[in-house]
Batch of 2 targets.
Target 1
Amino acid sequence: VQLVESGGGLVQPGGSLRLSCAASGFTFSRNTMSWYRQAPGKEREWVAAISSSGGSTNYADSVKGRFTISRDNAKNTVYLQMNSLKPEDTAVYYCNRQNAWGQGTQVTVAS
C-alpha cells in the first residue's frame, strides 16, 4: 500500500488549497478514504472521510462548510479542497486508508 500526498504549501488566511493523495497497492475503489491532520504539539486529528463510491462524505466540525473531500476512482486519487483557510488549519495533512498512512504534506496558513 502506498499513499502519496501533494498540494500543500503556504497560503494567506482566507485562501484555498487543494490536496491530492495518489493511492496504489490496493483496490482503491473498494475503500473508504480519509484525511487527517497534525498540528505542531497536537495529536493527529481526523478531518474528513469519503465512502468507496464517493456517495457519502463526513467532516469534522472544525472544517465543515469550508473543506470538501472528493475522489476519482479512475485515477486512484482522493482530494481535499480547502477554502476559507484559517491559521488554525496549519498542520501536516495525511491521507489514510485503514492503518496505512502517507508521508504527509505541510499546509501553512499565515500572512
Note: The chain is about 0% helix and 50% strand.
Target 2
Amino acid sequence: QVQLVESGGGLVQPGGSLRLSCEASGFTFSRYVMSWYRQTPGKERELVAFISDTGGNSVYADSVRGRFTISRDNAKNTVDLQMNSLKLEDTGVYFCHALGSGNRYWGQGTQVTVSS
C-alpha cells in the first residue's frame, strides 16, 4: 500500500522557519521524482519544488527560490522541505508528491500558517 505521510506543518510568524517532512512507503522511492506542492483557498495547487530521483537536481518556484530547500534521503525514504524567511503568502496546505514508473501519488497534506 502506497503511503506519503507529511509532517511538520504548523503556525509560524513571518520571518520564521519550518521544516516539512514526507515519509514514503509502498513503492521504490529512489526511482521517483519527489515534489512539494501547496494549495491556498481559491487557487490551484502549485508546484513549490521538486528533486530528482538521485537528489542531484532540484528546481524551485520563483516565489520560494533562495528561501526554501528540498532534500531527500533515499535510505530513509524521506523528502524534506526546509522553509526559511516565511512570508504571509506561504500560507497553505503543503502536499508531498511522487512521480515515476507511470505512477503519481499524493500525500494528505499538512497545513502551514504564517501569521503575526
Note: The mean pLDDT is 97.
